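step=predict obj=SAM-dependent methyltransferase n=279
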Amino acid sequence: MDDTATGLGDGPLAPGWTPPEIDTTKAHPARIYDCLLGGKDHFDVDRQAAEVVLKALPSAREMVQENRAFLGRAVRHLAEAGITQFLDIGTGIPGPGNTGDVARSVRPDARVVYVDYDPVVAVHSRALLAGADPALTAIVVADVREPASVLDNPAVRGVLDFDRPIAVLMVALLHFIKPEEDAPGIVAAIGEALPPGSAVVISHGTDGGDPETSAEARKGWDNATSQFTVRDRESITALFDGLELVPPGVVNVPLWRPDGAAREDWAGIWFDGGVGFKR
C-alpha cells in the first residue's frame, strides 16, 4: 500500500513534518477537549478556554469523560455486532481508549480511519499511533462540513472498503456545526455513501435544561476555531432520520447501555447520544 493510501504522504502527515505556523491565539475544540480530559496535547490558549468552561460548569470534566466512555461502549457494541471498519470523524487527539484500541480489543483486524480538520491534531495523532499497522489505520486531514472531502479521500478509500459495513463516529462533533451549516444534511450525505449494515454513532451537547449556565460555559469556545451550538433531544434524534436506532435510542450518554448500573446523577451530564443502523 502506498503512502497516499495510508494517509502519510507528502502533506502534513509526512514523517518529520511540523506545522509552518501554529496560531496560538485561537483555541481548537479538539485541544480544549484534550485539556478537559486531563491530557497534555494542548496549548495555553486551549487551557484558558477550558478554564472558562470549568468556571461556569465545573462538571464539564465529568461530561467529557462520560462522553469518551460512551464512545467506547458504542464501538465495542458495534465490533461485537460484526463491524470491522470504523471511520472516526472529528476524532480529536486519540488517547487511551480511542476507537482503534476498543475495536481491536474485539476485532484485532479492525480497520480504522481517524479524521480531523486540524493538521496540528493530525500530527499529534500520527505520533500517538506511530506503531499502528498502516494497512489497517489512516489519519486524514478533512472537514466534515464538506462530506466529500472525507468520503472521497484516497487515504479513507485505501483503508476502508465501502462495499462492506462501516461504522461512522461523529462523537462530540456536530455541536461544532452551526445551524446554517446543515448538520442533518451532513449526516444524510455520509449515510447515503454507506452500504447496508453500516452504523452511525452520534453524541451531542445539550443545555442540560439550564440555558444560562450553558451559555456561560460555551463562551469557552468564543475564541476557538469552531463555536459550540447546543441542540435539544428532538433535534439530535432527527440526525438519525432514515436509520434504525439501537435501543435505548437517543439518551443521556451514561444511560446508553452502561456497564453495570448507570450513575444516579446522569441528568447532570449534558450530552445525548445514540447509535443507528442503516438497513
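step=describe
The beta strands are 85-89, 111-116, 137-141, 167-171, 199-205, 244-245, 251-252, 271-277.
step=end
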